[in-house]
Amino acid sequence: MNQFKIPIVLLVLLSSCGRFSNEEKKEEQTDRIVSAAKQYTEIMYALGVGDKLVAVDISSTYPPEVKELPTIGYHMHLSFEGIMATKPTLLLEHGGKFSIGPEAVVDQLKKLQIPTKQFETKAVDIASTKQLIREMGIFFNATENVDSICKKLDNDMAIAQLERNKYSDTVKVIVIHYGQAMNIYMAVGADGTAGKMIEWAGGIIPLQKHGMERITSPEIIAKANPDVILLTDFGYDKLGSMEHILELPGIGLTNAAKNGKIYRIEEHDLIYFGPRTGENILKLQQLIHQ
User: pTM of this prediction?
Assistant: First the structure.
C-alpha cells in the first residue's frame, strides 16, 4: 500500500487552511518554523522570536496573535500536506509517546528528512521551566529577555504562595479536558501539570492517576464529588450550554453542580508550565476559592 495516501476525510478535517484563511503569510521568510508543541509556541513569543513561526498545531492558542497563523491540524493528527505547504525548515515537537502523529505522517516526514527539534529540558516544575526558557533562548539566539522572564515567573510564584496562605480550606477540583485526538471527554489525574498547579492554588484533584482517564461511568466523577469542576475551553465551548455540561456522566451528581461551581478555563492556562504559570495560579486561586 502506498503510505503516502491519506484518507480524504482526514485531509478535509486537518487541512492547513489557517484559522483566518491566512496561509500565504511569511512566504519569503528564511526561518520557517512549524510548532506542534503549544508550550514551545508560547515560550517563543515570550522570547520575542514568534515571528519565526509560519504555522502551528491547533492546540497552540497563546498568545492571541498565534491565531493569525495557519494551522497544521491537531498535534496527534497532523496534516502532512498542511505541514509541507508551509515549506518548513524546522518542526518543533515535544518528543515522547504523545508528541506528534499519526504514525503515517511521522514516517513521511522522516523519509523527506524534514528537520525536527525536541528541546532537552522537560518542564515539570518551576526550576525546569526556567531551564527550558534558557535553553530555548540560547537556541534561538534570544537570551536578552530570558532573565526578566524568569524573574517575573519567580515573583509571580512568590505572590501566589502568599495568597495561598490566606486560604484555610483545600478545594476538591476536577478538571475535564476534551481530547481532540480521540474525540472524548477525559478527567485529568492529580499526577501531572494541572494537579500541581491546582495544589499550588490551594486545591486538590481527588483522582490519584497519571495522565487522563476517559469518562466512561458516572462513578468516576460522582465518587470524587468535587467542590469545583473546570472544563478546558474547547470542550466547554463544544457543549455550548450548562444543560449539556450537566449531561456528562456523573457531573450533575456533584457538589460542584449543585452549587453552580462549574467553570470554563483556557487549556493553555493549565496544561503546561510556561512563563505565565505564576499568573495562572493566581487566576486559579480566584476561580476555585470564590
Answer: 0.86
